[in-house]
Amino acid sequence: MNAPGQILDLFAGPGGWSEGLRALGLRDIGIEIDASSCATRAAAGHTTIRADVAAYPTAPLRGKVTGLIASPPCQTFSAAGLRAGNTDLPLCHQALDDIARGYDSRNTSLAACTDSRSLLVVEPLRYALALRPEWIALEEVPAVLPLFEHTARLLASAGYSTWTGVLNAADFGLAQTRRRAFLLASRTRPALPPEPTHADGGTLADLFGDGLPSWRTMGDVLGCAPGDVITRGNHTTGGSRFPTTGPSWAITGRARSWMLRVGNRTASTRRRLDQPAPTLLFAKALNDVSWIEADGTPIRRLSVAEAAVLQGFSATYPWAGSRTKQFEQIGNAVPAPLATAVLRSLVPVRLELAA
Q1: What is Dmax (Cα atoms) for the chain?
Q2: Fewest beta carbons within 10 Å, which of 114, 144, 267, 276?
Q3: Going by C-beta distance under 8 Å and a sequence separation of 6 or more, which residues neighbour residue 285?
């Protein structure tokens, strides 16, 4: 990194934030340790430093970073995991206070953590106070909101305007009701949440402007509008008939009756094609995310292309690694439409494309 005004993306993953920036004509440099994610980023044209964020030195980056983005690994706090991070919350809070005082207690705290990943949530503050970027955008599962609120208070003491809260990706054009905690901060402008572009059921126009369209549905983005009847191929009929207006990878079957099931328990979440998907979770068996008939009859597992589109990526995004690693990357990525909405509200207009 040898040019000023760079955007640094910590725990960059496969490129959700990067795709969000690309839609705004901007680019970032990611730091990511996972080999498959790095390969995906490279294939998608996103610059990456393969390194451990917690071990990477901040001194060489001083004076070179305008924007800081971070989505620390969420598995330790996620409802889909064992939530070991809940046990480690006091250690994380203490580490945040120590960093703000200029004392690096990470090694001591790490030794006491139930899950070594828990402490990664303090890394954005370490980078922020060392680099003093103009703006900051952090994302995590909602359970991390108290830590983000703590971080925001410390950033406010360092001269930042801050906002913390939970956003629903469906309110910003994603066909998925994915809720995530965000921390936005700026040294040059008020930090404010993005304005929603969609609403559950839509809203009517009034004196203050046009109304908002309804949430997008799985059928909207997967090329299979509600009411279309599409024949699945089998050993008798062979082949499949796709809707003429849909992409060649579009789902097949009787679209009106299809549902997406996330989880293999009796009470697992189920959504119809004319609804947004629930939060996609791939932390466990891939079979847990599948298409079923309305009566529960299995149809098939969700495909990589379908999962990518439901997460806001293109159907042809160049995922690298095994099928399991591809689903893992998709499930952990920040949806690009949500990233774009958040960054549009935060990034100064005068910021030029970082080459």
Answers
A1: 71
A2: 267
A3: 264
pLDDT digits (tens, 9 = 90+) for 233-244: 444 444 444 444
- Written as one string, the DSSP assignment of 236-291 is TT-S-PPPTTS-TT---SBGGGEEEEESSSTT-EEEETTS-B-----SS-GGGEEE
* Confidence at residue 202, expressed as pLDDT on a 0 to 100 scale: 87
In the beta sheet, which residues pair with residue 67? Answer: 7, 135
263 pLDDT more than 90: no
Where exactly does CATH 3.40.50.150 map onto the chain? 6-200+332-344
Alpha carbons within 13 A on the beta-carbon side of 338 = 27
38/36 Cα distance (integer angstroms): 5
Q: How far apart are the first and last CA of the chain?
A: 10
Residue 117 in tokens: 């990943």
What number of helices (H) and strands (E) belong to the chain?
10, 11
Q: What's the predicted TM-score (pTM) here?
A: 0.87
**8 Å CB contact between 65 and 29:** no
Topology of the domain covering 6-200+332-344: Rossmann fold (3.40.50)
The tokens describing 93, both together, are 């809070």
The answer to whether 336 and 20 are in contact (CB under 8 A) is: yes
Q: At what angle do helices 145-157 and 84-100 cross, to 10 degrees?
A: 0
Which token pair is 121?
């949530």
